[in-house]
Batch of 3 targets.
Target 1
Amino acid sequence: MGEYLNPDNTMEMDFSSANTVLMSIDFSDTKSFDQYVFGKLQSAGKKYGIGGYFEHRAIYARSEVFVTEQSDFRNIHLGIDIWTESGHPVYAPLKGKVFSFQNNAGFGDYGATIILEHELKGKTLYSLYGHLALKDLEGLELGMTLEAGQAFCHLGPFPENGDWPPHLHFQLMWDMMGNWGDFPGVCSQREIEKYRAICPDPQLLTGYSPG
């Protein structure tokens, strides 16, 4: 098992449009974005940043990955992000098996992505891990069993992680909606209720609660 997230080592990060400081950051430049994230953590004396579940985000104009049409821009974040140094291990929150994995390459995308399948009280739950190290895809097999608490991947560095400051995109889904190897991590305002029914709050599985 890894280190538990708690108020002593973790701070909540705000990437919503309410955070006016974001207007002064060039998010199209990953190094500037990285300096902002890790500067915040260093100033607060924290190892981890967390947050983002159904957050209306101000940072997605950095990449065309999130554009459908200008009138239907995808900027509602469906999972949570855990920001920390690249190479940090990620642990399975529940017993499960490997459902799919692939490299969703491209600026602003997930990069290396693993999706696990779990059985929870008679229902199937899927968990997605994005922005991983490419080496984590080597040796994986579909259906491979993972125990709860088992380390199975690591945060990737930029640019191989989709060109983001190192962090884990962690998302839960009750329904894969026909997707394999990938799943939308953001939605438009029009789709909020649809995705809220599919994507429960993954922070419940991190053990973290604000102090």
Target 2
Amino acid sequence: MAAKWWTDALVDQLLHEDAPHGDLTTEALGIADAPARLTMAMRAPSTLCGVELAADIFAKAGARAEVLAAAGARVAAGAPILEAQGSAGPILLAWKVAQTLVEYLSGIATATAAIVDAARAVDPDVAVVTTRKTFPGTKRMMIAAIKAGGALPHRLGLSETLLVFPEHRAFLADPAAAVAALGLAVPEKKVVVEVVSLEEAREALAALPDVLQCEKMTPDGIRAVCALVAAAGQPIVVAAAGGVNAANAADYVAAGARVLVTSAPYWAKPADVKVTITPA
């Protein structure tokens, strides 16, 4: 089972958001105590995320749930992923929250896996990482989804990494000297410098950063930066960022990028989860 990245408080929050005063329809119909069974299955091939959280949501509502396929699993169309049993009240209460979470998170995981597969078909050791552009308030869920798809987070927030943007350099009298000093000021961190052109990459080389992050460059642009770094004889990693997706990931890796930085999975289409609820 995947490591638990959520809290009981999050489960309570999700249920309370959808049913702050209970399930009015189920209660009014008088069917809350009827025995029920729910199954979830994928309508298309998918990489899963959120199934364990969904099981916890059913359990918190008062049903019994079994995970049939774990986060990170690649499942075929029609594959069952979760089964819940208990009274109709708890199952109907948790149903839509659990289904929607699995759909959104599996959509992100599936899109991530497509980028990872395309990149690693060219170089099995290339790193695929995602930006901090998660929807505010949902970071823990979206990061869990990209990890299920085989990627890792590039930056979880401003407090953890050194990434120098052109917007930072605009305030510096001597950008190369200031960037070079970062390695001494914060020695346990790697220094990443974002550049948007070959000329900026050439200027940044003087600071000997650990990583040159090339923003919105074409694969040919990445190839030129890689040649520049090779000619300098420095062990600087070249990362491609901005516009990286499943369709062009292989081209960026073939051009020499050792890291692909992407936000694309965060806007993935949700997966389609089929839910069947029957009397037990």
Target 3
Amino acid sequence: MEKNAKKSQMDNVPEEAEEKDDADRYRAPALDKGLDILELLAEQRAGLTRAEITKALGRNASEIYRMLERLVARQYVIRSEGGDRYALSLKLFALAHRHPPMERLISEALPLMQRFADEAEQSCHLAVYDRGNLLVIAQVDGPGTWGIAVRLGSRVGLVDTSSGRTLLAWQTPEQRAHMLAEHTKVKGEVAIDHAALEAACEQVREAGFSRKDSQQIFGVTDVTFPVLGPSGQAIAALTCPFLKRIDDYVAPSLDEATQMLSATVQTLSMFREDGAA
């Protein structure tokens, strides 16, 4: 009888209450604190001080201090040069490269890249930041007899390429500093001082894209637009290494190809902003 009474009582417990009991039963307070910090910082483009984090989360200063130190030690969070502000590092972004969302980005990008290549009659490639330089994760050839193709899986320079400077231009100062601290030169990469690089990134940001002569191949004009994520930061860069025809064939001009690439990236960035990845 007693067992039946207990069973009857359990049967009367609302489903929401059972779910709440399960959530409470499997709580991990330390993990919750760490995730709270990461989720809070994900919404802050300029980072937060420890006091601001403590106030926003309604926790005591000592537990936030310990958790922040662990997140910094594990490189999920970076501390500003002055040591007073904290922001997300790119580690979570790097981990995402090994996860299906990166495959989803590629699958969404490839049809758009193919359409651009067919209409502009130029090749294009998509690159992301990865461990100190750029990784080419997708590449489509143009339909013509000639073209410039960057081999899939290639690593290209962070500071001397249109793709690299575009990615750097659409990061927070803390994230850009972290990327440059991790920077590893690729073969042939041209060095540039910090002030000149900052100026170049600012020019790209103001223009909304990068269009300049390639520093790797003579006769090529690199056109690059950032693929923006939900936070407004660049998660990838789409580049067209434009080749100008000098024979009698009339192909889309550099300006026309630039407009086509812009439209392609706007569609792809909207995909990211919709949270589909």
